[in-house]
Amino acid sequence: MKKIILSGMRPTGKLHLGHLVGALANWTKLQNEYDCFFMVADWHALMSEYENSGNLKANMLDNIIDWLSCGIDPGKSTIFVQSQVPEHLELYFILSLVTPLGLLERCPTYKEQLRELTNRDLSTYAFLGYPVLQAADILLYKADAVPVGEDQLPHLELTRQIVRKFNHLYKTDCFPEPKALLTETTRLLGLDGRKMSKSYDNYIGLSEEPEIIRKKVQNMITDAQRIRLSDPGHPHKCNVFSYYAIFFPELKQEAEHRCVKSLIGCTVCKKEFADKIIGLLAPIQEKRRVLLKDKKHIQDILSAGRLKASSFAKKTISEVRSLLKL
Ligand code: TRP
Hints:
The chain is mainly α. The protein has 2 domains: 4-188 and 295-323, Rossmann fold; 210-288, Orthogonal Bundle (Tyrosyl-Transfer RNA Synthetase), CATH 1.10.240. Helices cover 55% and strands 7% of the residues. α9 (153-169) links the parallel β4 (145-148) and β5 (179-182). The mean pLDDT is 95.
């Protein structure tokens, strides 16, 4: 039997190149080796967006279309929406029974978000429990592994602690301890050199028009020490070059050579680079255009995903109920 993978994404906005290298490229590979569950975590999104939840549904469909366009295959993977499988909430409650409050209060992501996201009121009961719902997502499908970025490691560690406590208390081996599958790619920097993120407005969207991509790339920061065309460039200090290494490794050497030897200026280099990114996104955007015309197809994929996820989830819940003698 294949091992099980579960991962999720919150539908908080449009997807960008950071999602492609950080998650989707990896998910697309994993679906050939594992039994994969890919979930839209709308309840998790709600925990921070509850004051303004009107966009979640549109984001959700938009994100799923991008998943499919990037190669997530509903024939191989189960694609579903968290809120369509209410068992997530039941397990979340049961796990919360055994989750020590201190673990949640000390969770680094919790403390950081409270500090950083000052434009929302996150001092709520639900937000504190964010990692417990994530543990429920993972354990409901008894996932062996969870592909995540580094920022999610504390949530996985918390999940493992909950598993140990639950299994010990109810004398069971019902839940396996899930492993983190860290994404290998180096972190993709945003256009301004910080982490690529919607909230920093420093991203290239997967569905962005070529003209917008050209403009954004022209504004990318390159080597600040290179003033005249004849000055030799320092590619390892240049953001555009860091993208070459990730997206076009076969062109990396040539790009480096031309920069160091002053054979090309930054403006022309960025123009060429923009064309390459536009070319990379073209087949994804073409698939997207086709999918956008067939909403029924998307609904069918989600219905099938819901059915498969539900049947798994129901089995786990009935096991858990009997362990608790309910
Ligand atoms: N917390 C994850 C994030 O923000 C999203 C998520 C929700 C998730 N449930 C999950 C990821 C379960 C992995 C497994 O990226």
